[in-house]
Hints:
This protein has 14 helices and 19 strands. It has helices spanning 20-30, 56-65, 68-74, 98-104, 113-124, 169-174, 197-200, 241-252, 259-264, 295-298, 307-324, 328-357, 362-374, 377-388; strands at 12-16, 35-39, 51-54, 76-77, 82-86, 91-95, 109-112, 129-130, 135-141, 144-149, 154-157, 159-162, 181-193, 204-208, 212-218, 223-231, 272-278, 286-287, 290-292. A 7-stranded mixed β-sheet has the order 6-5-14-15-16-13-17. A 6-stranded mixed β-sheet has the order 8-2-1-12-19-18.
Amino acid sequence: MSENTSSQKAYTVHIVGCGIGGLTTAIALKQIGCDVKVFEAAPVLKPVGAGILMAPNAMKVFGRLGFAETVKERGHVLTRGLRVTNAQRRTIQQMGGPEERAIAGETSVAIHRGILQQVLLEVLGEEHVLTGKPCKHVEQDGERVTLHCEDGSTYTSDLLLGADGIHSAVRRSLFSEVPLRYGGETCWRGVAEFAAGEEWGGEGVEMWGGGVRLGLFPINDTQCYWFSTETAASGGADVDAASAKRMLVERFKDFGGPAAAILEATPEESIIRRDLFDFVPIDKWYKGHIALVGDAAHATTPNMGQGGCQAVEDAWALQLCVQREATLSQALEAYEQMRRPKAMMVVNNSYSFGKVAQLRNPLLCWLRNIFLRMTPKSVYLKQIKTLYSLPS
Ligand SMILES: Cc1cc2nc3c(=O)[nH]c(=O)nc-3n(C[C@H](O)[C@H](O)[C@H](O)COP(=O)(O)OP(=O)(O)OC[C@H]3O[C@@H](n4cnc5c(N)ncnc54)[C@H](O)[C@@H]3O)c2cc1C
């Protein structure tokens, strides 16, 4: 390691995984003087995936790292917030209004995942990324850490961060196997060629039926991202994407608004189906100079739209802790203490929220909707404050 000053930390840092967590962490640590390299399993980085919602907590981190405006320009700012409705389009909950925005300090942005990854790569610099480098395992030897890749190559650094997602190879190297937990829902996602225009723009909508949900979000001037969940056993499959699309159009044709038109306007090849899993929060996020970031540390079901945002918060916390603490061991302990309670709260609440949102029984759905409508705004605003506050 080169000499460190109090504000600049010239550690060499290797990050496994080029997702939202890995790239944002690389940017955050590069900004404080670290020599960062990201190792990605995929041979090439392609703009895959559908859309993603970056909530105010993530947008505030992007602001502090200096590129929130770029994310807003390349995505779609939800100026009117997010509305949850029933199947008849009667509002159950309205979120992200002016009062909440004032508390949150930012707006949510919906963006294509591939475009977000491209923005992060541009900010970081592609020269910091090595593709076609699947991590096999990692090991600690005194003060140094070695990354062993599947192709036999090895790389040594001061600090190694596993941002390699829910099936993390880095986590497997550090701790015993963590069983995944099925959230009880399967999910389809797609990107439609559909201009939201003035009528549907600036707002995300989530429509709840019995055991099914459909979320619709403009991600730019010409495209909308959607997701749809269904309470189901794991392991189900569609005959093909065309039949999945037909089934979804049929299912949501009476929900009104732009639902059916958006589903119809989706190229079949963009439709992805995946069962939703998380894992029960783990006790430790680091060992020696190796730590976990994002889904590798705290994979969550997407019911609160927070998995990626929590990965972004990890990046911010790592910048703070590495910069402040005298040693890497102290920094990683501080990072775990700073982040684990909130990430754990998100994982647990998201899992429970999924069970409530995916209720099938009409009477229970009716009671749930009444309860949500009657919940005092002050309760919701308190939750928002906790969820969108950043570590300091
Ligand atoms: C349906 C759905 C909707 C969602 N919606 C939202 C949302 O609206 N907002 C939100 O904040 N979150 C959302 N999430 C959650 C979010 O997608 C994840 O939490 C987020 O992508 C985690 O980022 P990550 O960087 O930790 O991991 P990942 O995105 O999983 O990235 C891991 C990276 O590591 C690479 N990798 C894996 N193994 C290896 C290896 N052995 N060696 C090297 N590289 C490896 C992978 O190729 C990948 O590039 C959603 C999730 C789902 C499933």
